[in-house]
Amino acid sequence: MPFRILSLHLSTLFNMNTTTTTTTKDICNRLSDGVEKIALGHVSPGEANIWATTVAAYIIFGSAMYFIFQEFEWFTEYRHKFCTQPRPDNYSVYVAHIPEEYRSDGKLLNYFRTIFTKDAVLEASVAMDISNLEKKVQERTKVLEKLEHAVNIRNVKGHEPKHGNPLGESLESIPTYAAELNNLNDEIKAQIEEIETKKLMQDQDVSCDDLKESPLEQVPLVQEEEDTAHDSNEVQESHDEKKHHRKLTSVMSLKNMTLDLMKEAAGTVGGTVLNSANIALNLISGSQDGTVRDAGFVTFSSLLVKNQCVQTIHHSTPFTFYTMNAPRPKDVVWANVGKSHKEQQLSYLLAQGATIATCLFWTIPVSFLSSLSEVEKLQELIPGLEKALVKNPWLASLLAQLSPLMLVLLTSFLPVILTIYCKKEGHIGSDTLHASLLTKLAMFMIVQIFFVQALSGTLFSSLAQIAEKPTLAVTLLATSLPGQVKAFIQFVQVQNFLGCGLELLRIPRVVMALIRERIGPNLTEKERNTPYMGILPITEPAEMEYPMLFAEMILYFMINLVYSCIAPIMSYILLICFGLLSVVFRHQLIYTYSTENDDGGKLWSSAIMLLITCMIVSELTLIGIVFLKLAFIPGVLLIPLIVCTFLFASYLKQQHFKVTEFVPSTICVAMDDKNQDMELDFLKGQYKQSALTEKTVYPENFTENEADVYRTQETTSEENALVLDDLEHAVVLDSN
User: Fold this and answer.
1) In a 3-state reduction of DSSP, which class is residue 163?
2) Which of 332, 262, 287, 408 is nearest to 94 (CA)?
3) 235: left (phi over 0), alpha (psi -120 to 50) or beta
4) Are the C-beta atoms of 446 and 557 separated by less than 8 Å?
5) How far apart are CA 313 and CA 315, in angstroms?
6) Residues in the chain with pLDDT values less than 50
7) What are the respective helix, strand and coil percentages of the chain, to the nearest 5?
8) Closest by alpha carbon to 214, among 242, 243, 256, 247?
9) Beta partners for 92?
10) What DSSP element (H or E) covers 295?
């Protein structure tokens, strides 16, 4: 806001209409548009008024650097407060490209407890490839929703629901879906227990050969600390440990027995039978889920140790054993966890290439829409429009807003397209994904809305000349920009007032909620308050789209940085726009939007760097404009301003951004002392893959009798599994 007020004072101080020569006064008097009269575009080459642009640039950009420097002080303070809150992500790190010798929960945990302390490292979790299980869980979720909806139909409408199968038969929905859910629960539970068994084996580094040489009963399932090793025989195993122990023994023994039998049978047949035996062995062993990925999460009980860990180099090979701040558990993109470095780099390059290609393609519609900003050009394109304007003069005002309105609508599609590209870059959490999206959106808008619109009138006619001589683009831009004041004023007004109006009235939100109400289930309060096909009900608060909002503000900054020095009227327009944005979104953040996606200002650093980039581009543009006005000395005097801006950016990169990223040790120690008696239950199990968290799920709207039937079935199933395990265990002992 101080930046905007300063621009206002400068617009009054440096009135571009104050000319000294008779020629320029005559040109100004012939102008019918008041906006053009107070812009630099009408000033004749070599006029003394051009000095006002140079002086204004030093004051505007110098003040911008001062205010940015001041912003770091308060932002750093509040950023550190946020990063010391009792949240799982503040106490956890993401570990990428883990060396093979540490790719298990126990080994990774022991490593960090070795370099730090045992009490400071709470738990470690290495990600696993569980694609088959995740598909099963998704299938189970759909069946559960169908079953709950069928029960609601019975309870609310009073009749037993039915549905058809692919064969055309009519089936009772509740028993059918209940049976499907039971089967899926059993399959998922078995897969999860198998994966847990594999994790235990990985922690103990047990191989088939080791199991053959020594009884599995002698292999401890849980690693004991040295100080409690002598008392291990006195501690009895829990029910779950016994079950896993029996299962591990049975599975591995059956593997060995099967392999031996198959090898004997294949003695004279050859390698073909051995291959078949390996396939059969894989079928006996179960699915391929459980393969360890080379990434995971480590959770600490100390803020100090966590910040030390994320700033420590853990391996001599670049990008190996690399640690970074963990995202919130709900924001983890598990599909990207454990991607190889080469795959990440290739995905990043492909995403950047797709972004550049889209930007080039986007130039065509933006240039066309920008060329329609004047009614005279529309009359040339549309036959008969001139007669219609004579009969209906009000059409001229309406058509004048057509170009900015279409540009705003075209811009609204950008976040959807660019988000797809960002997801392919391999981001681990939504925080880094949003930072990448902000950069793409901001640069996209600056290129397409600012530069392409400024060049729209002569872009297509000058493409051949620009291809032969690229430096001509600077001259063309400096020539076109002063004449595009009205077009940018229209765009800013339409985007700002239309956007704020829709934001306050919540029209898109209400429309989507009505669609969800019509097409989604709404028999009970839970169904009415549950998202359907990604559409939120009106009772569910939406999350603020920070990247899009910040990108629009950076575009406004870019427009104001250039035009506050050559067309001061723009400062008045943007003062109103920023004031309106401040009031509207302050209200929306407090009363309307959810705070779940509050990442504590992680986008702020990206926004500041983009703002500094806009300052440099604006200064280069102003130099081109001043030189084209044949004002050599004012143009040369702007060069030190660019040098100062580069030095300012280099100075901030030394420490300021790093200080906002990490919490100082003094603050960490103080917070650890304050929280030394704090319960750490909110940290445990947060970074476990969601598909592994629930072995069985049941409908919440079942009656007590139906729920008892489910509980009885589950208990019976567990008992049968234990009996089967005992029988298998006995068979193995007898065979030995």
Assistant:
1) strand
2) 332
3) beta
4) no
5) 6
6) 1-31, 206-255, 257-259, 261-287, 460-461, 723-724, 727-728, 730-736
7) 70, 5, 25
8) 256
9) 299
10) strand 291-300
Burial of 213 (0-12, 13-18, 19+ CB in 10 A): exposed
Helix (H, G, I), strand (E, B) or coil at 248: helix
How far apart, in whole angstroms, are the C-alpha atoms of residue 318 and residue 440? 27
- 3-class state of residue 123 by DSSP: strand
Which two tokens mark 77? 């303070």
Residue 5 C-beta-side C-alpha neighbours within 13 Å: 3
CA 256-257-261 angle, to 5 degrees, is: 115
Half-sphere exposure of 231 (CA within 13 A, CB side): 5
Give the bridge partners for 147, in sequence order.
none
The pLDDT, as a whole number, for residue 718 is: 53
Please choose, from the candidates 244, 277, 291, the residue with its C-alpha nearest in 3D space to the C-alpha of residue 132. 291
The rounded radius of gyration (Å) of the Cα atoms in the chain is 33
Nearest Cα to Cα of residue 75 among 667, 671, 659, 668:
659
Picking from 688, 723, 731, the residue whose alpha carbon sits closest to that of residue 243 is: 723
User: Burial code of 100-137, b = ≥16 C-beta within 10 A, e = fewer?
Assistant: eebbbbbbbbbbbbeebeeebbbbbbbbbbbebbbebb
User: Using DSSP, how many helices (H) and how many strands (E) does the chain show?
Assistant: 31, 6
C-alpha span between 424 and 431 (Å, rounded) = 15
Q: Measured between alpha carbons, how far is 171 from 253 in angstroms, rounded to an integer?
A: 43
Which residue from 119, 130, 122 is spatially nearest to 93, judged by alpha carbons?
Answer: 122
Whole-angstrom Cα distance, residue 76 to residue 661? 9
Query: Half-sphere exposure (CA, 13 Å, Cβ side) for 585?
Result: 17
Which residue in this structure is represented by tokens 């329609």? 372
CB-based contact 82:600 (threshold 8 Å): yes
Sequence-separated (6 or more) residues with CB below 8 Å from residue 631: 45, 46, 47, 50, 51, 54
Burial 642-680 (b: 16+ CB within 10 A, else e): beebeebbeebeeebbeebebbeeebbeebbeeeeeeee
pLDDT at 1: 43
The two tokens of residue 356 are 């550049």
Nearest to 42 by CA among 490, 482, 618, 453: 482
Counting Cα atoms < 13 Å in the Cβ hemisphere of 710 gives 21
State how far the Cα of 101 lies from the Cα of 687, in Å rounded to an integer: 21
**146: enclosing H helix or E strand:** helix 131-157
Tokens found for residue 265:
């049978």
Q: DSSP for 483-509, please give it.
A: GGHHHHHHHHHHHHHHHHHHHHHTHHH
Q: What are 96's strand-pairing partners?
A: 322
Report pLDDT for 52: 82
Q: Are 443 and 554 in contact (CB under 8 A)?
A: no
The residue type of 210 is: D
End-to-end CA distance of the chain: 81
Q: Which two tokens stand for residue 592?
A: 């309307």
> Residues with Cβ < 8 Å from 176, sequence gap 6 or more?
163
| Strand, helix or coil for residue 214 | coil
Three-state DSSP at 93 gives strand
Which H helix or E strand runs over 322? strand 322-325
State the amino acid at position 582 in one-letter form.
S
